[in-house]
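Why do we care about 3D structure at all? Because function follows from shape, and shape follows, mostly, from sequence. That is the central idea of this module. The next example makes it concrete: a single protein chain, its amino acid sequence, and then its structure expressed as C-alpha cells.
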Amino acid sequence: TPRLAAAWQPSDRVTVRASAGRGYRAPSAKELGFVFDHSVYGYKIQGNGDLVPEKSWGVNADVTVMPGPTRDSMSLRGSVYANWVEDLIDLDLGNGVFEGPVATYTYTNFGKARTAGAQLDARFKPAKWISADTSYAYTWTRDDVNEQPLPGRPPHALTSAIRLEPGWKLEFVARARVTTSAFLDESSRSPGYQTVDLRAGRALWPRSQAYVGALDIFDVKQDPNRLGDTRPPLGRVFYIGLRADLPWEDP
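And the structure:
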C-alpha cells in the first residue's frame, strides 16, 4: 500500500496538501458473518462469507485558509478526492429482500467502482463564548459494472452547528443536517431528510460535564415498508450522561 503525500505552507495562514496512494482492505468480521437484527425497526443486515478484499487507488488534495484577525477566529477549508476501487465492499441497499414486514440487506463486492467528491468546511469564532461550523459535501459514485451510481450514497449533504458557552459553566450545542435523496435502483430512490440535534451541558468539577440532549428532535425515521430507506432507523432519541477525565484535579 504505497502512499506519497506533500504539504506546502506559502504563509502562516495558508496550507496546501496533496496525496496519492494504493489502498487494500480485507472484509471485517461484521461484513463476513454478523447478523445485525433490527427487525423491530423493519430491517436486518446479514454478513456475506463470500466477500473478497477490496483494492483501490486514490488521490486527494485540500487547501486551508485562516483569514480572520486571529488564527482561531475563522478557518476555511476546501478538499477534493477521487478513488478507483476494485471489489468495493458495501451494503447492497438496492437488492434487499422482504421477509414479511422485515427487509434483509447484505454486503456485496461491487466489481469496479469509482467515487469522487468535494467538501467545503468553514469555522467561525467571533467571540470566546460562541463558535459555529458548517460543512457541505458532494459525492459522486459510479458502479462501472452495472453503469449506474452506487446505491444508498446521497450526492449532497449540508451540516451546520452552533456552540454557545454563556458562562456559569454552561454549554449549549445545536446541530442541523440536510441530506438529499439517494439512488437505489433505476426505479427508486431513498428519500432525502433533515435532522436537528440539541444538547446542553454543565461542568461539575474540572474536566467533567453532566449533559442532556435529544437527537433527531423532529422524529424523522425510516419507513419499514420502504426498501432501501436510509433515513435514521430510531427516530427521536433522548439521552442523559456524565463524562469526566481522570485525574479530576487540574494539573
